[in-house]
């Protein structure tokens, strides 16, 4: 059974201002660089009429993974994350998919960026799935924890950029 993931972030800027950052390739690359991951790259950045599709890639140092997980994957596992953002009423929504290269592991779900008072709220809801008997749920938990920590770093970076 997939492991749920839910993260909520609050920003002091309206949704349109936060979304403007998501439409800036340099911001996305800076956010990746700030994460501390290995070999961070913006693989694709495609603005559309009402949104943007972003594909990023970065590796997770095997040394930060639990030994059980590290033993199942050779080297530093690379992740590829695709976010497809679009305008949605007063806010913005995205479908996202994160895959771990060389492993049967994915996280997929939705993101919603909406105005909340004078600021905005980003809500990330998804599920981590690793279809491996016996160990799958443990690995899902590890992946969900790593992504939650990554999203917290991204929140800190975004807040700093919004503050100027």
Describe it.
This protein has 164 residues and is α+β, with helices and mostly antiparallel strands. It has one domain: Alpha-D-Glucose-1,6-Bisphosphate, Chain A, domain 4. 30% of the residues lie in helices and 44% in strands. It contains four helices and seven strands; from the N terminus they run E-H-H-E-E-H-E-E-E-E-H. A seven-stranded antiparallel beta sheet has the order 1-7-6-5-4-3-2, with helices on one face. This is DUF2505 domain-containing protein. InterPro entries: DUF2505. It holds the Pfam family DUF2505. It comes from Nakamurella multipartita (strain ATCC 700099 / DSM 44233 / CIP 104796 / JCM 9543 / NBRC 105858 / Y-104).
List keywords for this structure.
single chain; 164 residues; alpha+beta; Alpha-D-Glucose-1,6-Bisphosphate, Chain A, domain 4; seven-stranded antiparallel beta sheet; DUF2505; DUF2505 domain-containing protein
Topology:
Elements: E1 3-11, H1 15-22, H2 25-34, E2 38-47, E3 51-59, H3 67-70, E4 78-88, E5 91-100, E6 105-116, E7 119-129, H4 136-163
Antiparallel strand pairs: 1-7, 2-3, 3-4, 4-5, 5-6, 6-7
Helix pairs in contact: 2-4
Pfam families: DUF2505
Protein name: DUF2505 domain-containing protein
């Amino acid at each position: 059974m997939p492991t749920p993931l839910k993260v909520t972030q609050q920003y002091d800027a309206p949704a349109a201002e936060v979304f403007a950052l998501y439409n800036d390739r340099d911001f996305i690359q800076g956010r990746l660089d700030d994460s501390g991951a290995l070999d961070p790259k913006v693989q694709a950045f495609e603005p559309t009429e009402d949104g943007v599709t972003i594909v990023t890639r970065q590796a997770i140092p095997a040394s930060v993974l639990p030994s059980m997980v590290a033993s199942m994957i050779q080297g530093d596992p690379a992740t590829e994350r695709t976010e497809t953002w679009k305008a949605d009423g007063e806010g913005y929504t995205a479908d996202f998919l994160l895959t771990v290269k060389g492993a049967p592991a994915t996280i997929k779900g939705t993101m919603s960026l909406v105005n909340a008072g004078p600021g905005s709220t980003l809500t990330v809801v998804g599920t981590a799935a690793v279809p491996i008997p016996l160990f799958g749920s443990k690995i899902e938990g590890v992946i969900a924890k790593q992504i939650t920590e990554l999203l917290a770093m991204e929140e800190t970076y975004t807040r700093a950029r919004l503050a100027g």
